[in-house]
Amino acid sequence: MIDSLSTANSAELQALEAQANSGISAQHLRDALTDVNSRVIGYRQQDAPIGDIFDGNRLLGYAIVVRLPFESELQAIGVLPHKQGQGVGGKLLGEVVAWARQWQSERLLLEVRANNQRAIRLYQHYGFNEDGRRRDYYPAARGAAGREDALLMSRLL
């Protein structure tokens, strides 16, 4: 089930981001929940089994999309690590595309770490193409030395 999140979901969203580690700050999450030009959507799967326990109605993934003057931008997408590769990101991305179309955006933009091949494949599957690269844009992930490039991607709507 996908729904829009509000400030009432702030603690749950922060807890998910702490595990998903998409790189969005707590302040950015709070701001997105109150910005009239942003939509924060969440994915819940009721009674989803994990071994001998159940997720219940737990938030498993989220995405932030922002309306710009002629375009929309996917600012973040995060999925619990044990749910990655199970279609949660694709369902969220489909909803992001739907919001961008509803806003009558011409294009949907995003940026992604150049070494995040799983995410890049997902975006390509949804019709995104690489537009450019920002050299040394991201700090290296999880304590590694150096910096990482960002790929700039978009798709026409």
From TrEMBL:
InterPro entries associated with the record: Acyl_CoA_acyltransferase, GNAT_dom, YpeA/RimI_acetyltransf
Keyword annotations from UniProtKB, A to Z: Acyltransferase, Transferase
Transferase listed as a keyword: yes
Domain of life the protein comes from: Bacteria
Residue span(s) of domain N-acetyltransferase: 1-157
GO MF, one annotated term: acyltransferase activity, transferring groups other than amino-acyl groups
PANTHER family in UniProt: ACETYLTRANSFERASE, N-ACETYLTRANSFERASE DOMAIN-CONTAINING PROTEIN
Coiled coil: none
Protein name per the record: GNAT family N-acetyltransferase
Tagged with keyword ATP-binding: no
Protein species of origin: Vreelandella andesensis
Pfam families, per the entry: Acetyltransf_1
